[in-house]
Predict the structure.
Amino acid sequence: MITTLEFNEKYVYPSNKPGITLPVILTYGGLSYNVSAKVDPGSEVCLFKQEIALELNLPLENGLPITLDSLGSSIEAYGHEVILQTCGMAFTSFVYFAKYPGLRRNLLGRQGWLRQLRIAIVDYDNTLYLSRYYE
């Protein structure tokens, strides 16, 4: 049996960076900020640097607190609703921002990003195929 999927967007990601790196625009309270983030289907949530929250004038510590386990240590973060835009699609998303500065990378995880999408990865071609889940 052959299964066929259709996608609305195609994105070729750079091969010269480790992992799958995507451009992301986060919007909160009328302010927008451009960042890059790594696709991480093993991450339960989307996690962004504290510095981004400051740029968006987001009331960081008013968000939903969480402690995330990582390979190196625990990361404290706060969750907020933002508009997340990537690969030609924008949607309201609940993401987390690190409590402390210096997070090494932004992550696009399951809650907040992956569960909003249907996605196929052809890593040999550095290509993502994406559609909104409900389309």
